[in-house]
Amino acid sequence: MQDDEEGSDVDDAVEIPIDGTLDLHTFHPRDAKQLVPDYLQECRVRGILQVRVVHGKGTGALRRTVHAVLDRLEYVESYSPGGMGGGGWGATLVQLRPTDG
Length: 101
What we know:
Elements: E1 21-23, H1 32-45, E2 50-54, H2 61-72, E3 76-81, E4 91-96
Parallel strand pairs: 1-2
Antiparallel strand pairs: 2-4, 3-4
Helix pairs in contact: 1-2
């Protein structure tokens, strides 16, 4: 039995601040498919309707994954590259629809 952090097989939960910016640099790319919708939904609940998802530039694989996820979410009104001062091609700006109620 391993009881030290170094040898632990259990993934520790990470608390993500819900502040309108999701930085995916600290997460494994495979986690984006679930993390992005969960984060965006929580933003909607809190009334945060403009969100920046930071995926980095790299090869563009994570950006394509994020955009594919966004395309499937009915509560995403629109999205676009980060632009000047918003992360450029390394981030995506997302406009969310408000919650009903």
